[in-house]
Amino acid sequence: MLRFALLGITLLFTVSLAAQRPADLKKNGERAFASAHWEDALEQLVQYQQKKPGDLSVLTEIGICHFQLHHGQKALDFLSYVANKSAGKGSPELYYYLAKTQLGLTGFENAALTYKQYLRVADARHPLRANAIDNLQRCLSGAAMSPNEEIALVENLGDRVNSAGDEFAPLPSVNHLDRLYYAAARPGCTGGKRNEQGYEDPKNGKWCADMFYANRRPSGWEKGDPLSGLINSPRHEIALDFGKNGEILYFFRGFTPYSGDILADTAEVKDEYALEPPGFNGPVRGENGDVALFFFNDSTLLFASRQEGGYGGLDLYISRLQDSVWTRPRNLGPFINSAYDETTPFLAPDGRTLYFSSNRTESMGGLDIFMAHFNDKENAWQGPVNMGPPLNSPGDDAFFRLSTDGRGGWFASDRLDSYGQRDLYGVYFKSEQIEQITATNPAVFADVQARAAASANALPTEISLPALYYVNDKDLTGPDNTLAISNVVEAAQLAPNGKVLVTVHTDITGPSKFDLFYGIQRAQMVGTALVSRGISPNRIQLQSAGPAYPAARTVVCTEDYPAGNLMNKRVEIRMASPNGRLPLDIKLSRRETPAAAIAAGAAQYDQQCSGLAFRVEAVAARQILTTDAMAMFDDVLIESHPNEGVYHYMAGFFRKFDQAQTLKKSLQNEGFPDASVAAYVDGLRLEKAEAIGLVKKYPELAQFITN
């Protein structure tokens, strides 16, 4: 009877859906699409398409639904059909998801062409544009990548472990060699469906994550089971790692996947855990976005975080347990971290081999698994090296862990051949990975670094940043300036709270508007070099001062002094932290100028880079200002940031806010209606949120904040 009742309900639902008017089907389908309820959206939109065939926007959405549901070939069929019908004039979303689908099916060359088509039809402010540009580079990286010859096989763990939901964070048991723990967000999970604020939302919410485990038998993986109801709760639970040989389970619990607590539950060797586990008294905070914990020998903690002072996105950090207290987390530096995301670290037992995932442009698509090795002799990381296919794919590949015997491992991936969102995969190596069965002395790379630091007696207390001099643009990042750029990178590592101000000074070659514009283009070249060496673009401010602040005269005692031009064509790099002092003294140094040839401009600019000041932004433009409207104003600069593509034309220099306000009104009267006052501390431009914290030190900022 139950079978017939269920069949009746299904038929009733189908009849009800079929009875809907086409307009309602489209409306409800697009509403579900906008809420990322892909199965509901697909059901409604397919019904609409059957009644009203040929709507290219609906066909595009059907194709995107198939992509999101990992129906790779169906997505390709629908999106390719619409692209052919559109003749190069389809929506940006059409070409973006067609390229994603082609990339997911490892069609790197076709995907690259389609990403270029997306860039042709998407305007500069389209929300997917930046990712498309990165993915275009990832297509080139993937096309050049060869299969990893060390890997024998990568396989999906199957539908007894994986589902149409989301399986991730595999964690091998310490006490049971053939048991794997993992997290899953899928129908039946204890917390039900919740919205982004953590409230129950059966209609529009997404499934909470519970912790599961599965056992491997000779016949394969058995069906995964949830942990006891004593530990899985109505909130998200995600297993993070084991400590003390499996006696402690560290796990995350929160009403959303991004805010909650990290708990540490003691269970001896039974893998049975308590109802009210204590919180982990460590340096990580789930509510602050600290994620992906990995414990090495109970005294070393690696994790990913977006805390200030990083290189961009998620960075990897390390903390050590010393005298029962966890040390302040330390960034692993630019040889590991990049301007993109680095996450899910795993340090092999040799204490020198680090696996992690990153979506840097050297990946094949999204997150790829990388490996880096720490060299004791050089006291530095080597690599990182992309682990390549078949371990990596055009999807997101993360949470890699080696097996105890070093012959295999586990990871999670949302590649297009998965059952749903992310699935768990196993990897098998042709030979055991030596780093998994090797112990070293000292046990962990951080002790090598500490020993090297101790032998050096102390970290430097002062760093000099020499100015970069150039004759032509190639000189900016040429061999003569390599040391200066390296000094900036070192200073940024030692002072993670500092921001970098890059100012280009030019000689006079013509109208100042051109010298200023050439200067900001040169500043962008230097900014790109710094970003490529690991400094986050968020920490870099670019300026062009043109020829307004010469360091040397070009005429001395009525005689031409050609060397003056060479000393004026310079790039000066400073570091400062408006919100606090730097941990070391960082000084700018210039070439020595003969006393008779010293010009006042350099000293004048030094004064402007000290203390509180105000300038007025006349306009933010994407091209050079071809008019001479700015020529009547003093102290004109152009500012920008790496990869921003916007030039901020600034005028004036004032210590009082009222004076800047007066200039703002003058600029508005001269045809710059959007002119606004900007505040600076030690040469660095402040956001209003930063200014609020500095009002006590600089009361003049109160007027800036309230205007």
Keywords, separated by commas or semicolons:
5-stranded antiparallel β-sheet; 9-stranded mixed β-sheet; Serine Threonine Protein Phosphatase 5, Tetratricopeptide repeat; 707 residues; Tachylectin-2, Chain A; 28% helix; alpha+beta; disordered N terminus; 60s Ribosomal Protein L30, Chain: A
Q: Can you offer a commentary on this structure?
A:
With 707 residues, the protein is of the alpha+beta class. It folds into three domains: 18-143, Tetratricopeptide repeat domain (Serine Threonine Protein Phosphatase 5, Tetratricopeptide repeat); 152-455, Tachylectin-2, Chain A (5 Propeller); 462-706, 60s Ribosomal Protein L30, Chain: A, CATH 3.30.1330. The protein is 28% helix and 28% strand. It contains 16 helices and 36 strands. A nine-stranded mixed beta sheet has the order 25-30-26-27-33-34-32-35-36. Helix 2 packs antiparallel against helix 3 (38-51), helix 3 runs antiparallel to helix 4 (56-68) and helix 6 runs antiparallel to helix 7. The longest helix has 21 residues, at 512-532. It starts with a helix and ends with a helix.
Offer a quick outline of the entry.
The chain has about 700 residues and is an alpha+beta fold. The chain is built from 16 helices and 36 strands.
